[in-house]
Design a protein that fits this description.
Length: 311
């Protein structure tokens, strides 16, 4: 005789699966961890002021100038949640058919819920060259104004096309980034680490450029087996989530308090199920059903802190 599929036994089964799922969720580290900020949201939308080095000390003389923190801000609406559904036939519970495999399935769903962050960031990065930002051009563009209010002339770029990952191109993009000005006309003064973010297809190139002390690669300033001047200039991050952009790479100022991307969470990961034998799913379809859901949105917050290069 098999297991009797009562509300109590099924509840115990799914409670264990939920615990396994949430444990795996907590253990999993998103591939882009550290280059985005996770912000809670409890309303219809959140507002994010854009810093862009707008804070600059000036001598106190006469009437003070007050800066409206939300003069330039991005507003992110909360949409529908993300969800995944699964079911298990009542007869499989009663006959205990591969019940141990439910643990493996639960782990997979836990990873999927946490990795939703990576999925959204990849979506944002891929859309960045066609997504308008608050300075009037796209998030990734070659003609960002140094100052949207016209106080500082000139433009800057965080999009480099026809730029394969080579030592020479790495140096060019890095120098461009380190020379970037904020809206007040002053240097961005990036602190801490710069990260070179690449897909798996560019792993070897990335390691040779920033992790190899000696180099004979063409384009290295001191080539021929001499010291690699780019050694340690950035920390390499390999993201398999970028698999569809095999020749695209990024530089990110990851050591700053401000991150280039915001992930807005309005619903934490939630697991719910229909287990009562009298529920329509069990009564009519002879199956128990579960749902994993999470409420997340992404925001491309500030292009000053990231550069995109495309071969």
């Amino acid at each position: 005789m098999g297991l009797q599929a009562t509300a109590v036994t099924v509840n115990a089964l799914f409670t264990n699966a939920r615990d396994v799922l949430l444990n795996r969720y907590n253990e999993y580290v998103p591939q882009f961890e550290g280059i985005y900020s996770l912000e809670p949201s409890t309303g219809v939308r959140n507002a994010y002021p854009v810093i862009a080095a707008s804070a600059a000390m000036s001598r106190l003389s006469g009437a003070p100038e007050y800066k409206d923190l939300f003069l330039k801000a991005l507003f992110v609406e909360n949409g529908d949640p993300w969800a995944e559904f699964m079911s298990i036939k009542r007869r499989d519970v009663e006959l205990q058919a591969s019940m141990s495999y439910l643990t493996t399935i639960a782990k997979t769903y836990g990873v999927a819920a946490k990795a939703l962050v990576d999925d959204l960031i990849v979506t944002g990065l891929q859309a960045g060259a066609t997504t308008a930002w608050i300075d009037g051009v796209n998030f990734f563009a070659t003609n960002h104004p140094n100052s949207p209010n016209g106080l500082v002339a000139g433009t800057w770029s965080n999009l480099h096309t026809g730029t394969a990952l080579t030592p020479a191109n790495f140096e060019t993009v890095l120098e461009n980034m380190m020379g970037r000005l904020g809206w007040n006309g002053r240097s961005m003064n990036f602190r801490g680490k710069i990260e070179l973010v690449v897909p798996w297809a560019l792993r070897s190139e990335g390691k040779r450029i920033v992790e190899q002390e000696k180099s004979s690669d063409p384009g290295v300033t001191t080539a021929g087996g001499n010291t690699n001047v780019n050694f340690g200039a950035a920390k390499l991050r390999i993201c398999q989530a970028l698999v569809s952009e095999a020749t695209t790479w990024y530089l990110v100022a990851a050591g700053e308090d401000v991150k280039p991307i915001v992930i807005q969470e309005w619903r934490p990961t939630e697991v719910a199920w229909q287990m009562n034998p009298d529920s329509p799913a069990v009564f009519e379809q002879e199956e128990f059903r579960a749902k994993v859901s999470r409420g997340l949105e992404y925001c491309l917050l500030d292009p000053h802190y990231i550069s995109k290069a495309v071969a």
